[in-house]
Design goal:
The structure holds 3 protein chains of 3 kinds. Chain A is of the alpha+beta class. Chain A contains 12 helices and 8 strands. Chain A has 3 domains: about 50 residues; about 230 residues, Orthogonal Bundle (MetI-like fold); about 60 residues, no CATH class. Classes of the chains: A alpha+beta, B mainly alpha, C alpha/beta.
Chain lengths: ~400, ~400, ~350
């Protein structure tokens, strides 16, 4: 841009010299920004002095003293604020991870249904996506919580699915797999045996087809698995089914009403946005690609799997990234239903300790880190997909 | 799956070659029972549909207490705004509709259609038993809309004026809503703005103020000649985009007072600043996308014509970039409109919170589904109308067609 | 454009900043602190209150704030302005109290708030005299057959976020080794609704709140309040640090309510007491001496307060007695309670 003025022999006076003006403008800008920030910082310090409070992060070591409804990692009220924050961060990640997976599944199903040649499926998918995309996510979350989950039967009249899964107004109780100390030996035996049988078959019966060989291996593995169950003093894996005690269910995996509502809300909202992304990406693959693939004799399944999906994925990934980041940020709405995520626990800590400035810094740093990590992961995936395609 | 994907380009806008007339049976066979997969899909969809419809039907016509909606219309619409001063809200609504009517008449298009629809709907609503005052105002608003449309119909010379006049109308509306208008009409406190009224004010102000700031941020970020400003803009955009709106609102509510050194700034304004900031950075990213789509040749050509950098930006680059960014911008504004519901974080009562106030009221316990359904419908209508209008504008601009 | 006055923040930010720098260099007022001056200039007191706790603070069917805590705000307004209606009420969720007072959102809080050392320091506030001595209790459904805390082993318990009850609950159950699941809600309404709908087996709150709330449940007789009290909950008003003149006004207004009850002065007979010859009462009611002047108030400020809201006993009888809340510790010391005002001299 400056080349024009450089080449002209008539040097403009300095106040019309673009270069000098630019430098001056930026210096003025920096001074103005510093001045504003200086005044703001001074005001902050003055307010702190007036109220007699100080800044610092040492309070994080104090004992938190409040209970947390649920957490993936064990927590006791006698532990520190820092530990409570970690519980909250893990809850945020857990909620986000589950929701991202389910929302992606839902998005693909709806998105592909919207492209289907089946009229009814297409219309149904369109109506669903339009409904959820045009109302606030907070409304959806509150609806799931207060309109659906809290109106379910009470804990003593839970809806039971096959005696394994129990659904009531306090959430969902799922059976879990309990691994005993015998799990690792059993796993080693089964894998070793499978590998041994395969070796043996390849050496002794090379004439067998791969289907027959796999059948033999499966049979051997199945037999051994049953043997482990019967012969070991304790079964290697046990199904832990929730049992109703005096007040609540115990055992299995418990998803609280608040977690379930948040998850359903985030999944239905983001899922519909992902459906739109999926649809757009498939539509963006040029039609010629279908025709060309067919022309070289690929079947429809092959065309879809080998030609269309890789290209659509490539188009999709940046938009999916945006959706995932939005989902993580929306998970902070958990405070509206009382799920103990990072934001909710931070606000409790602010309230109990009065450290709003410090907690705000921590919140910002944590969410920025989450964002960076997800973006980095998606960029890595993007690079991978690109390599596959070219 | 593949067979159901065999014609993936079911795009509405595509002009398809004329097809031979089909009998309904042939249509059904082709669109619903094309293959075994398609048949399965049809059955599953039909089951889902039947289940959802019967569930809804059963609830809506046998259990739901719909009387909660008409009984609390005032709370949904204007929350805690003093009832004796309600005429001010009506007057503002009338003024806004009339101004829009002038614009609709001058510009025509989808805006005009919406206004005719809105005017007609209000005219019809005036016959509902809502009390004489409300009915009168509804009729007056409807009349004002149609009068304004009739006045300006076809006057293309009024087009620009219909935009600039807002600079006058907006302060007037604020004055009408909040001002001290004499002994019988004392000032209304800003915190009393609530319900749908607050939602609309928050969203409109954030759009109007956030948009230019966003454009400036985008230009700052795209400017390679001024690295300091570029870094500053990038930093602001990325920092704000990286944290949830809840956190920003929280800061506006809790932290800002510390930084203002004892000056008290109204909570609504602090929340509004958070929304403006949030809108601005997202707008900035959309506009940046638009800027990147402008070929370098445009810039070079403009420079060659002897335009100075300011003129290049204002007359050549920005108009094209904004045009390219229209779809993304509309999405942003839609998101913003929905995200105004997050003001619950700072304790303000928007449309959604007004709903929560209603269904936690002991008289209306157990009506959360009805209330949330109604609020959902209101949001849906607003968002859907905006999205539809945006599509029309997109078409009119010929985006994606070049 | 007079809406500028009402949207007092519409001042451009830059102007605000410049002004703030300017304000800092102003000399301190000789008698009244900055907060009192600001309130007087504004012409109304901004009081942070509850709107979901019948008896203490809620909205009546005309949308007006009423209750025990509300009357404390009204009393302070009467002392400041001679008019109990010059109050603007701001609803605060429990978890928002600290930020609202720190940021200057409200001038004072009168919202069933427990006085603790941490709050005193970390919130940077001054607590006024305790206006209600309370304790934390539990309410459960009768059908569960719970009689003592130990029976709540494994139960889900509803609690309001950001309260001392949240902390006491964790402490007590930990000390006794009773496992439980807390579910936190942001307000009285949402937590009591959730309890009633069955989200929790029990709900914990201040005893007075349980009594007043139980009365408004669909079938009060299906619920019992456990006799056990697990904590001390002295509830009182509070003001921010930094203006002793305002905290003094708050303190002595509350003491005036106590003192009036001790002396038998009520809103009905205060006019007669004005004719009293008792020097103590003459001083108290501003007929003699300069007590009002010392606080920066009018000489007859106590008369205004008593006329507006009555004495402490009247306030209690108006809001809490109808709900079945016993006076208990909240009697004047002369009647076996612990409410006690320092001498007015």
């Amino acid at each position: 841009m400056t080349s024009l003025s450089d080449q002209s022999h008539l040097r403009p006076p300095w106040w019309r010299n673009e270069r000098i003006l630019k430098v001056l403008l930026q210096v003025a800008f920096v001074v103005a920004v510093l001045l504003v920030f200086g005044i703001l910082a001074q005001n902050l310090l003055a307010s702190m002095r007036r109220l007699g409070i100080s800044l610092g992060f040492r309070f994080l070591g104090n004992s938190a003293n409040f209970g947390i409804t649920e957490g993936l990692i064990p927590y006791d009220p006698s532990e520190s604020y820092l530990k409570a924050l970690v519980v909250g961060a893990v809850n945020t990640l857990w909620l986000s991870a589950v929701s991202i997976v389910l929302a992606t599944v839902m998005g693909f199903v709806l998105g592909i249904a919207r492209l289907s040649s089946n009229w009814l499926a297409r219309q149904l998918a369109t109506v669903i996506t339009e409904i959820f995309r045009n109302v606030p996510v907070l409304l959806i979350v509150i609806f799931w919580y207060q309109g659906v989950i809290l109106t379910l039967p009470g804990v003593r009249n839970s809806l039971s699915i096959g005696g394994l899964i129990f659904i009531n107004q306090r959430g969902v109780n799922l059976p879990s797999l309990d691994l005993s100390g015998w799990f690792i030996p059993a796993l080693a035996i089964v894998i070793g045996a499978g590998w041994g049988i395969r070796k043996l078959l390849l050496a002794r019966r090379p004439e067998l087809g791969s289907l027959q060989r796999n059948l033999w291996i499966s049979a051997g593995v199945a037999l051994l698995t049953v043997a482990c169950w019967v012969l070991f003093p304790e079964p290697p894996v046990r199904l832990d089914i929730p049992v109703l005690e005096r007040f609540n269910f115990r055992g299995g995996i418990q998803l609280s009403a608040e977690f379930t509502a948040m998850m359903l809300g985030l999944v239905t909202y983001t899922g519909c946005y992902i459906a739109e992304v999926v649809r757009g990406s498939f539509l963006a693959v040029p039609r010629g690609q279908w025709e060309a693939a067919r022309a070289i004799g690929l079947s429809e399944l092959q065309t879809f799997r080998l030609v269309i999906v890789p290209q659509a994925l490539r188009i999709m990934i940046p938009s999916l990234n945006t959706q995932y980041l939005t989902l993580i940020k929306n998970s902070s709405l958990a405070i509206a239903v009382g799920f103990s995520d990072l934001f909710n626990i931070s606000s409790t800590i602010i309230n109990q300790s009065g450290r709003s400035v410090e907690m705000f810094a921590i919140l910002m740093a944590t969410y920025l880190t989450f964002n960076l990590v997800v973006s980095y992961g998606m960029n890595w995936l993007n690079a991978r997909v690109k390599l596959v395609e070219r | 799956m593949p067979s159901s994907l065999s014609s993936p380009l079911v795009e509405e806008e595509k002009v398809l070659p004329p097809t031979e007339k089909q009998s309904p049976l042939a249509w059904v066979r082709r669109n619903l029972f094309d293959s075994w997969l398609s048949t399965l899909l049809t059955l599953v969809s039909a089951l889902v549909l039947a289940w959802a419809v019967s569930l809804f039907w059963n609830w809506a016509f046998t259990q739901a207490r719909w009387e909660v909606i008409p009984a609390n219309l005032k709370i949904f619409a204007s929350g805690t705004y003093p009832g004796s001063q309600l005429w001010r809200v009506w007057a503002v609504l009338g003024i806004v509709l009339a101004t829009l009517g002038v614009a609709g008449g001058a510009w025509g298009g989808v805006l005009l259609h919406y206004l005719i629809l809105l005017g007609a709907a209000m005219g019809l609503a005036a016959f509902l038993p809502l009390g004489t005052q409300s009915q009168g105002w509804l009729a007056a608003c409807s009349g004002a809309t149609f009068a304004a449309i009739a006045l300006s119909r076809g006057r293309e010379s009024w087009r620009l004026a219909s935009i600039w006049v807002w600079a006058l109308i907006l302060p007037l509306c604020l004055e009408l809503l909040l001002g001290d208008l004499g002994p019988n009409w004392p000032a209304v406190r800003a915190e009393q703005l609530s319900g749908l009224l607050l939602t609309l004010i928050l969203a409109a102000a954030a759009m109007i103020i956030g948009f230019p700031i966003g454009v400036l941020l985008a230009l700052g970020r795209a400017n390679r000649a001024l690295p300091v400003i570029r870094i500053f803009c990038t930093l602001v955009i990325e920092l704000v985009r990286g944290v949830p709106l809840t956190t920003i609102l929280f800061a506006a509510w809790l932290l800002v007072p510390f930084f203002l050194g004892g000056i008290s700034v109204n909570l609504i304004i602090r929340a509004e600043v958070a929304f403006i900031l949030f809108t601005a950075v997202y707008v900035a990213e959309d506009v940046r996308g638009g800027l990147q789509s402008i070929p370098l040749g445009q810039l070079e050509a403009a420079r060659a014509l002897g335009l100075n950098p300011f003129q290049v930006t204002a007359l050549v680059i920005l108009p094209q970039a904004l045009r390219a960014a229209v779809p993304a911008l509309v999405n942003e504004f839609l998101t913003l409109f929905k995200d105004t519901s997050l003001v619950f974080i700072v304790g303000l009562i928007d449309l959604l919170q007004a709903g929560r106030v209603v269904f936690t009221n002991p008289n209306w316990l157990g009506t959360q589904r009805e209330v949330l359904f109604f609020i959902g419908v209101v949001y849906f209508i607003c968002c859907f109308a905006m999205a539809y209008a945006a599509k029309q504008v997109e078409k009119a601009l010929g985006l994606g067609k070049r | 454009m007079n809406w500028m006055k009402h949207l007092n923040g519409l001042v451009p930010l830059a102007g605000a900043l410049a002004l703030s720098v300017g304000l800092q260099s102003l000399p301190a007022w000789a008698q009244l602190g900055p907060l009192t001056e600001r309130i007087k200039a504004r012409g109304e007191l901004i009081c942070g209150v509850n709107n979901q706790l019948p008896g203490f603070g809620n909205l009546d069917d005309k949308g007006k704030y009423v209750g025990f805590d509300i009357d404390i705000c009204r009393a302070v307004a009467a002392a400041l302005f001679g008019d109990p209606d010059k109050v603007r009420y701001v609803y605060l969720a429990a978890a928002n109290r600290q930020s609202a007072i720190q940021s200057g959102e409200v001038d004072m809080i009168s919202r069933n708030t427990t006085w603790t050392l941490t709050r005193d320091r970390e919130w940077a506030v001054t607590f006024g005299p305790t206006v209600y001595y309370d304790g934390q209790g539990f309410m459960v459904k009768k059908s569960l057959g719970v009689e003592k805390l130990e029976d709540l082993k494994g139960a889900t318990i509803c609690v309001i976020a950001g309260t001392t009850t949240e902390l006491n609950l964790a402490d007590t159950f930990r000390a006794r080794g009773i496992p439980f699941t807390p579910v936190t809600f942001d307000g009285d309404d949402s937590s009591f609704n959730a309890y009633e709908e069955g989200r929790c087996d029990a709900i914990t709150s201040d005893q007075s709140a349980l009594i007043s709330r139980r009365a408004s449940l669909a079938s009060p007789d299906d619920h019992v309040i456990l006799p056990e009290i697990i904590s001390k909950e002295p509830l009182g008003p509070l003001v921010p640090h930094g203006d002793e003149s305002f905290s003094d006004i708050m303190n002595w207004t509350v003491y005036a309510l106590f003192y009036a009850e001790e002396k038998g002065i009520t809103s009905a007979n205060v006019e007669e007491f004005l004719k009293s010859e008792d020097p103590d009462i003459r001083r108290f009611l501003g007929q003699e001496g300069n007590l009002g002047e010392l606080l920066g108030l009018k000489p007859d400020w106590v008369v205004n307060v008593i006329k507006a809201v009555g004495n402490y006993g009247e306030i209690f009888d108006r809001h809490l007695t109808p709900l079945g809340v016993p006076r208990g510790l909240n009697q004047p010391y002369t009647k076996g309670g612990i409410q006690y005002a320092p001498p007015f001299r």
